[in-house]
Amino acid sequence: MIKLTGIRKNFGSLVAVDNLTLEVERGEVFGLLGPNGAGKTTTVNMAIGLLHPDAGSVELVDYGPPTLPDVRRRIGVAPQQLAIYGELSGQENVTFFGQLYGLTGRRLRERVAWCLAFVGLSDRSKDRAKTYSGGMQRRLNLAVALVNDPDVLILDEPTVGVDPQSRNAIFDKIEDLHDRGRTIIYTTHYMEESQRLCDRVCIMDNGRLLALDTVDSLIARHGGKSVVRAQTSNGEVRIETNDPVSELTRLQKTETLQRFVVDQPDLEQVFLNLTGRQLRD
Q: Which of 233, 232, 276, 242 is nearest to 262 (CA)?
């Protein structure tokens, strides 16, 4: 659905994105992960036509580059910084952005009503957005991104600062959109979100692609070994292994196994193995 081919973007002497090539397939949830300063936001801004790459190309397959207005109309964006107006009601916010996309009349009214119902805000649609809770504002942000019925949806950190109930509500909506065949690019710092939602995950750092695959394949290739931590009759043991069941069976045969925990590699371990543990500010 989206092809980024050899894109590069410099800001002065800083190389924000360095010869990045990837394809987002139609109908998938594509996770874009990386530490602060990895180039994720710059990549997203080029994918939606907000920035022009210094080299390389970006296109929506069958439509063209997102710098063209007709192509941009096929994209919906929910940015990390809320793109809503506090003095406007929920309904007025969605209506305003729908008009920016050229929607009018019955079609506009239908889309506004559908979007507000989809995110569960119909009963608060007349209230000013500034009176909404953080989770409600995030859901309104999503409604605004959906008003043009986009083929591609960009969600940049869509659960920042929300409570667990709102977070799970947003997850449910993303899964619903996935079931409806939407193509979604999802950026987040929460590894468990990517494990739950994404068909494939791209991990980048210093503007470059480090790994791209399904979550299970990334864990298998880059996650490292499982760790068995056990309390036995002879004390505590810690074993790194690719076969924790065999190690537990061996321990049980030679010692009295009182309790144990198996820590299996996950996407967070993959992320740290690829990008390092140094703090990023």
A: 242
